[in-house]
Write a structure and sequence with these properties.
Helices cover 0% and strands 46% of the residues. It is elongated and about 80 Å long. The protein has 462 residues and is mostly beta strands. It is built from no helices and 27 strands. A hairpin with a 5-residue loop joins strand 5 and strand 6. Strands 1, 2, 23, 24, 25, 26 and 27 form a 7-stranded antiparallel β-sheet that branches.
């Protein structure tokens, strides 16, 4: 079986063009429903100022979360501690006493990294990722911003990126296993990124992909990408997303939540970026998509996650990574703020924190038609075992037909297909047809008023 993600027109025959006579098909994002409250709140002394940048992984049914915390009195971005929480259901969370790092004279806390572990450079914007190329003792990696000593600068430091590694995600070591011990003179980059970056091994590109905040010549914050085969050496990021004429007149792009998503053999990249509107000093989230991780399409410019809850009226920062929950659902997390980016308190707010958004698999962006549309999918279906499953929100009806040569197969025409309607996630197309000697056919879909997110087929050779 092969899954076709329909976030764009890549899998549509005819180079993705839909003839005007066959209706209009256009990409639309599908924002997940928000919960009533964050699942993680700042409720420990070392979290007394705020909790921030999060990293969620689901491993063997266990939810694992790494997040940053700042204590009251912290001034600089790098005055941060990396903490750890876990859960068996994603609802009830524990902040375990790990006994690793001392805070106020006690090791009874869930802190796994602080400035003492990073040789005094601190940490900020941590991204935790699994590295398939590492030895077991460095299976977990993280990259973060550090304040490297620089006596020639007015503030006595230079913000550059650094790395740490771990065998289990709990006990961390600064640097990389093959790096010299003088970490302060061996930063991994010649640049800094003062929001959470996104880093992962990309098997398609055969390199590590990193997404960082950059600055344009006019001072606008934008997002760039850097690629490397050596984690110890990164080139300057090249801008891939920047504010344009379709954005508010004075705006910036914050954090770099680029996520590679794989489902049923099909892959795509989803980029959740926060747009700062300087008129309101609030950050909301937009969605960009890509098939190669470099060229991103902002096909649906509407707000993906809005400032519409008492806990997130000031700002939203999505964390990199899309977690498969193993029950037909996926999840992303974001850090919510109930005050503006400038720190102004907003009325009628509730405690902010880390929020989880659950949604059916493959449902972040789909192809929609408001009327009637027909199109042929690339790939072939075996009519002798015509297994086709659809994932969509169909307000009208959806039918399909199998084409061999230049005509529909007898018994497998659109009129022979039992129409599908409603909100469906893995519903089969069923034909009234009988046995056929044909082993390969094209699939043509007829959609009336609906959105399709994915189609799964038992693909046969051409």
């Amino acid at each position: 079986m092969r899954n076709l993600l329909l976030l764009d027109r890549l899998h549509i025959s005819g180079h993705g063009l839909i003839r005007r006579t066959e209706g209009t098909l256009y990409p639309v994002c599908c924002p997940p429903k928000k919960p009533d409250a964050p699942f993680l709140l700042a409720d420990r002394p070392w979290e007394s100022k705020r909790i921030n940048w999060a990293n969620l992984r689901v491993e063997n049914g266990r939810y694992r979360l790494w997040y940053e915390a700042m204590a009251a009195g912290s001034i600089h971005d790098a005055d941060t501690r990396l903490c750890y929480a876990e859960s068996t259901d994603g609802i009830h969370w524990e902040k375990p006493d790990l006994g690793l790092i001392e805070f106020d004279g006690s090791r009874r806390n869930n802190i796994v990294m602080d400035s003492r572990l990073t040789h005094g450079i601190g940490l900020h914007g941590v991204i935790v990722f699994l590295d398939p190329n590492s030895p077991p003792e460095a299976r977990y990696r993280c990259m973060f911003l550090g304040a490297f000593p620089h006596p020639e600068r007015a503030d006595d430091h230079l913000n550059l990126m650094s790395l740490a590694y771990s065998a289990d995600g709990i006990v961390w070591h600064h640097g990389t296993p093959d790096l010299p011990q003088d970490y302060l003179h061996f930063p991994m980059t010649c640049f800094g990124s003062d929001t959470q970056c996104s880093v992962f091994w990309d098997p398609n590109r055969r390199c590590y992909a990193g997404y960082f905040r950059t600055l344009e010549a006019n001072g606008m914050r934008s997002i760039g990408c850097s690629e490397t085969t050596d984690l110890n050496s990164w080139s300057m990021p090249k801008t891939i997303l920047a504010p344009d004429l379709f954005d508010p007149p004075v705006s910036d792009y914050y954090n770099s939540a680029a996520s590679r998503y794989v489902s049923g053999g099909d892959a795509a990249y989803f980029f959740f970026y926060s747009l700062l509107d300087h008129d309101t000093e609030t950050l909301s989230v937009r969605l960009a998509t890509s098939r190669n991780g470099i060229h991103f399409d902002r096909a649906d410019r509407r707000t993906f996650i809005a400032n519409d809850r008492p806990y997130d009226r000031g700002g939203l920062y999505v964390a990199p990574g899309i977690a498969d929950l193993g029950n037909g659902e996926c999840a992303i997390v974001y850090n919510a703020f109930n005050q503006t980016h400038a720190g102004t308190a907003l009325p009628d707010t509730t405690p902010d924190g880390t929020v989880m958004l659950r949604f059916p698999k493959d449902r972040l962006q789909g192809l929609r038609t408001d009327s009637r549309c027909s199109f042929t999918l690339l790939g072939r279906v075996n009519p002798q075992q015509p297994e086709v499953f659809v994932n969509g929100i169909i307000r009208g009806r959806l039918r399909g037909g199998l084409i061999a040569g230049d005509h529909f197969l007898e018994g497998f025409t659109p009129d022979d297909c039992v129409p599908v309607s409603g909100d469906v996630t893995h519903t089969p197309l069923v034909w009234r047809g009988s046995q056929t000697s044909v082993t390969s056919a094209e699939l043509k879909l007829f959609l009336e008023d609906g959105t399709l997110f994915a189609v799964t087929v038992n693909e046969s050779p051409a």
